[in-house]
Amino acid sequence: MSTTIPPTPTGAAVPPGADRPSAPAGPPSPAPGGSGTTAPSGGAQPHSPAEREAAIRRVGAELDRALPRPSRSPMAFAERRAMAQLMDDPELKAAVFRFVDVRPACADAPALARHLAELLEDAEGSRLGRRGAKMASGRGTRRLTAGVASVGVRGMAQRFIVGEDAATAVPGIERMWRDGAASTVDLLGETTVTEAEAESYYARCAETLRTLHDAAQTWPAQRLLEVDAAGPIPRVNLSVKVSALTPLLRAHAPERGIAGATERLRGLLRIARDTGAHLHVDMESFDTRESITELTLRLLSEPEFQAGPSAGIVLQGYLTESPEHLERLLSWAGSSNRSSPFTIRLVKGAYWDHEVIDATRHGWAPPVFQDRRACDRNYEALSRRLIDASLTGRVRAAIASHNLRSIAAAAAYADEVGADIEFQVLRGLGDETMQALVKTGRRVRCYSPVGDLVAGMAYLVRRLLENTSNDSFLSAQAKGTDLDTLLEAP
Amino acid sequence: MTFINEPALELRRAEVRDRATAALADLDARLPIDVPVLIDGRPAPGTPFDSVDPGNPATVVARVQGASAAQADTAVAAAAAAYPEWSARTGHERAEIVRRAAALLRSNRLGAAALAVRECGKPWADADADVCEAIDFLEYYANGAAAMDDGQPLLQMPGERNALRYVGRGVTAVIAPWNFPLAIATGMVSAALVTGNTVVFKPAEQAPACARLVVDALHAAGVPHGALALLPGGDEPGKALVAHPGVHTIAFTGSCAAGLSILETAARLAPGQRHIKRVVAEMGGKNCVVVDEDADLDDAVPGIVASAFAFAGQKCSAASRVLVHEAIADDLIERLSGAIATLQVGPAEDFATDVPPVIDREAQERVASYVDKGGAPAAQAPAAGDAAADGGPAVSSDGYYARPTLFVDLPEDHPVVTEEIFGPVLAVQRVPSIDAACEIVDAGTFALTGGIYSRSPRTIESFVRRSPVGNVYVNQPITGAMVGRQPFGGGRLSGTGPKAGGPDYLLQFVEARSVSEDTVRHGLVV
Ligand SMILES: Cc1cc2nc3c(=O)[nH]c(=O)nc-3n(C[C@H](O)[C@H](O)[C@H](O)COP(=O)(O)OP(=O)(O)OC[C@H]3O[C@@H](n4cnc5c(N)ncnc54)[C@H](O)[C@@H]3O)c2cc1C
């Protein structure tokens, strides 16, 4: 079978969910037409831009109402205040992040106290930092301060991490499942610089797939999470990083990374196929995009994977070339003869600062949008294109964002055209968004990192930086920006 | 004119790599390149020799005419004759010419890089960086020379006008290395020219075609033929230049032994010599990376590998020692060993190559002898070709390859630990503290580059304060200094301490002249 996926004229579609009930609902009926057709029939009028904007506001407001109220969760409130404070105190923020970063490398309490005191001392312009420095270096308060800071960091890390390893992660993942949210597990670890490290990451992935497979047998049925318009959805879902599967990724020689990771990724695809799991390949820095994309598509084209597993890849909407990249993925999916649809997770991209710094240092034009609004507009356009394509049944659309506007735009459009899509959030950052999505009857999957404290810390630092960057939706939300502004068209 | 670094080629894009490969094919079709002795713009024959591709010595890159001592004499005379006219021009005029040379190189970016790939075995990214740095030097020194026209502000009294002007010194002999065949040659030659000196340029024996490319660009840009002569060859023309009474300044980059011998010769007054020679020397290094117990090994390991093995360790700035805190030494050694085992040794033109060949047979033998002395290595990369995938360029068994090698816990006075190897060999030693590491660094004879991986602000501060080296790098690789960003050069036996690509560099090539005029006539200031 070979089906290409031509662009759909936006809006030419059925709007069964245009007036979506806000109570939890089952999956919408399968997209009409089935695979092989592109524009779904139905005869409904395409929405005008104004109607579309109104629908986005409606869905956004509905999600906002479904968010847990901060007052009901005093801890979250305190944390939000602390975060807001950090955002206004850049020197303290730098000190805190540097402390979080070095925390796992401190062998003992004195080492911790020393680092904390040094870092806070350097936050000269910060009143709080100076107070902290005194406490962290004072005779009587030194141990206590370091202890509290250390426990604080551990606590923070635990919010972002679901368990130290697959076995300890299972209860948390099952709880989420029972509460109506699916998960995808991500194994944290050191940067892979040796073959031994790649091998150990591979072994942990393999072991995780098996552990989750066994555990998931006893989970109760969750219709919304297990079937969509394109068919059954695996309960077990693992996200993998190609950079962890090989030390050979080279920006100038994509084939080396591909060769280095092929056997291990193939092995994981086999286990996923044999255990009925979904395997998702994360996207990383621009330097590795070509290797990751080529490797994934090549392996999935192999005959042995024709019947499975369910698999997917990530598209980063912050890349200015992302529209062309999406077409490449769609054209591959359309002409592939795999039996399960290809999941495309649409994200903005987690390496924005890195890409800008790296490009600027070399004198290149950054490969990413430099204007937030342009990035968000592109994300919405990609969402529509991906959602249209999902109507063929050849691809699944997964909208991964914590931005209420981006989510609402995708949700409203999916409702308009009658597409059955999934939303994804990150554990720790998107917990509340996840609850709202569950409450409003949307399918949601939580990206759930697993790993020890050392491995978790680098991840935690990245998430914290993202969360407190002035450019992020979550920080605008935490500062109490009003809903109309939050939902403004980019 | 504000200075910005020339953007690197974006080799992570396939279409850019394709253009690079096409440029190399173009070059290959034109090989070998003729490199004559060039005095007053007239090519002259000499003692013929070849420069070859280090990855495949059967490929002759250049057919070269080696200059004699007598030709060095002629060249100095020609340069002396050209000096009055060239030095009389303003800094602005000379800067314009030098900027034109930058533009010419810029229009031949890929061709120039391809030549460095072929003649010196520089992998593409390094070869391209070499071209960019050459362009940067031209632009940066052009700015500096133009600014020199304004002199320096001085105290002024009523009726007295004071000025400080900079003038060229005379004939400059430039003796350049092969490891940055375009950048360092261009930097030294253009610094001398743009400040009003005339130049006799003796390039490395291994890089004559690159040298000719630089000289051609400068001539084409408008440097008078007499003001820049090219003397390819080995020791003979170099020695003759250093001893020559007509040479005023010697700009040298190369080995410590050669540098010391130049300093000695230059200090002796030759018959007929009426000035003191100035020597601007960049010599060797034995560069250390210090790793603290709180370092992030995820950064340190790739950083050390890049510093030690990129371009097969043949950068003066390359890391050859690691001093690691004993608390994390085992971890570091294990990960470093594993990372070295992933390195692919192969031809420079293969984009998949991590470590290219070393420059020549002699270098290959030198590296091998140190590896022998080191005993059982802790880790070694596979031999050239062993790790290569099918479909890449062929790996010649005659190429001057050397396997990246790691030694651990050698005695403090072992030659591998103390001597400059200039190849892909790295020695790791454990230290009980960062203070102890600082003492070891301080006991060294070289002081070029050095680095530390640490996350303690006080430890970093103390390391930076105690480090004797010219270029300190914190939590990053210790090679790849950029013009205008990390002015480059070291002290102790690493050189006379000019900072190439920095604001003070041009001062080495000029004399300052103070002019004071009484403007009072008949008791009035007029
Ligand atoms: C389930 C899940 C899986 C993910 N997987 C991946 C993955 O595989 N690979 C990956 O790279 N990321 C991945 N991400 C991370 C995702 O890219 C970040 O969470 C995301 O960048 C945050 O976007 P947002 O829509 O939630 O927030 P928003 O606040 O709306 O957007 C923030 C993002 O906008 C972009 N941005 C910031 N400043 C600017 C600017 N000045 N101009 C233009 N753009 C700017 C950046 O990408 C930044 O992260 C994943 C996220 C989720 C939820």
Tell me about this structure:
The complex is a heterodimer of chains A (490) and B (526). Chain A has 490 residues and is α/β, with parallel strands linked by helices. Chain A has two domains: 85 residues, no CATH class; 325 residues, TIM Barrel (Alpha-Beta Barrel), CATH 3.20.20.220. Chain A is globular and about 70 Å long. In chain A, helix 15 packs parallel to helix 16. In chain B, strands 14-15-16-13-12-18-19 form a seven-stranded mixed β-sheet, sandwiched between helices. Chain B contains 15 helices and 23 strands. Chain B folds into two domains: 253 residues, Aldehyde Dehydrogenase, Chain A, domain 1, CATH 3.40.605.10; 196 residues, Aldehyde Dehydrogenase, Chain A, domain 2. Chain B is of the alpha/beta class. The longest helix of chain B has 25 residues. The interface between A and B is large, with 37 and 40 residues. Bound molecules: flavin-adenine dinucleotide. Flavin-adenine dinucleotide binds next to strand 6, strand 7, helix 15 and strand 9 of chain A. The site of flavin-adenine dinucleotide (FAD) has 31 residues of chain A, from strand 6, strand 7, helix 15 and strand 9.
Describe the strand arrangement of the main beta sheet of chain A, using strand numbers: 1-4-5-6-7-8-9-10
Overall average pLDDT of chain B: 96
Q: What number is the mean pLDDT of chain A?
A: 87
Number of domains of chain A: 2
CATH topology of the largest domain in chain A: TIM Barrel
Report a brief summary of the structure:
The complex is a heterodimer of chains A (about 500) and B (about 525). Chain A has about 500 residues and is an alpha/beta fold.
